[in-house]
């Protein structure tokens, strides 16, 4: 069944590329509908291969450089990230269809071409196809941009093609099958890991010079997960056991530093969309730290810790994609209605835009470290992986693990503070501008898309175990080379019956119980009150007043004396004075013609 699925995925990628090339010649409604349909079809095509646990299949294309044809492959790792990318693309394209009029920068062409390049790079089975897909993806995101971003767009495919060629044995084409079958030089592996690390950093930090919600959503939903895929493919899959432990520590510490820095930027950013973008990049740092921890656990022969770390990286990628796209779309809806994205000018949106506010809160729940959100589940797995690696060496090797634990805790605190800041100021605070106070909810299709994404994000956060079993377990088994060292179920990951586990459903029930009690107890404890006048400061009138209850007394209308009926003299009305009308432009033209005719008559008489 996987052979036709791979062929249909290749056709879908080509169709998206053609749609992006011809988007300017099609009506906006038609191009957005086709982009949504092709993206949704790609999501549905990837599900059977993961559900049925299909083996890897390859497809040779009769095109490519001389003597080297392009190769495509569908395996559990590529299928996992393809579902993430196509799901994000479906939501973005469907939201573009409801955003009328759409800004010049938020075009369907960017979405379609970026998804086409992403699908081609994720399905690539050789270095040339990978470089071509990345060139298409980076070109769609970064063009037209500044010269620095153009250089980044050209640098990323070149670095990854060089890394693939370094991993390839001499005399062979840079195909992934040849790299897996032959031993790899450790020196070449170190250089390839350095090039891959530089390419991923450039891919995630390139950004956009012009503020555009489409590029922000594509960066959160497509580019950042693609960086995690590249690290897993080139370091954990192709390099295999040749990957040195040092690069695992480099990825671990770099990911922790990125998570802390982006969390700090999110907590202090003045714009709501910039803060959400920083939170999405923080998820990319967490995924990088998880991949580095998996490499360390593999070198120390700890399969359970490796499974924990890979599961944490996968959940971080899912959280950054689904929750990041949801938060980006919600921020765009709020900013378009409120007239600004500056946090100091927003407030009271929970009353004006309840659906968009609830969607933004759900997205921030997945990007922060608050249970039962998806971000807390990935953080829990990360700490379990750190605690499951006690045999990774002496103090020299234990110190980075302690430092990364402190960095993850600090990053979680910063991300949670940033999310609370956004919700408290923009959603729950008082309105600060007339435009913000008069914000109105988006149209019904946009609200539907946001609520579907919010439901999916909350559902994956509440049930991370089944989601991980369905999507990530085949890739974890393929990367670890055997059955997983931990059991995946409703309790997320359970290494044994005596080990602790994370259950999100009891946490959700406890939160619902405490929240309901906090809302119902004040309502039940209210006593009947008697209305009193303002002059009594809310107190009931004292007993013994001569006129009884002051609020029940007369307002004094019956005590007014009658006025005498006097006939006043009638004054004559004056005629209205009509001001002279200003001459119109037509009258001025006639006056000019009359003066010209009079001048001709005088000249004729005088000879």
Q: From N to C, what is the helix and strand string? A: HHEEHHHHHHHHHHHHHHHHHEEHH
The total domain count is 2
Which class best fits the helix and strand makeup?
mainly alpha
The side-by-side strand order for the widest beta sheet comes to 1-2
Task: Tell me the strand percentage band.
Answer: under 5%
The stretches of 5 or more residues where confidence is low (pLDDT under 50) are none
Q: What characterizes the major β-sheet?
A: 2 strands, antiparallel
Please provide the count of β strands.
4
Mean pLDDT, nearest integer? 79
Write the layout of secondary structure elements.
Blueprint: H1 2-21, H2 28-51, E1 57-61, E2 70-74, H3 76-98, H4 108-122, H5 127-142, H6 147-167, H7 176-181, H8 186-205, H9 213-238, H10 245-268, H11 272-299, H12 303-338, H13 349-352, H14 354-367, H15 374-387, H16 395-427, H17 434-437, H18 444-462, H19 464-480, E3 487-489, E4 492-494, H20 504-524, H21 585-606
Antiparallel strand pairs: 1-2, 3-4
Helix pairs in contact: 1-2, 1-4, 2-3, 2-4, 3-4, 3-9, 3-12, 3-18, 3-19, 4-5, 4-9, 5-6, 6-8, 8-9, 9-11, 9-12, 10-11, 10-16, 11-12, 11-15, 11-16, 12-14, 12-15, 12-18, 12-19, 14-16, 14-18, 15-18, 18-19
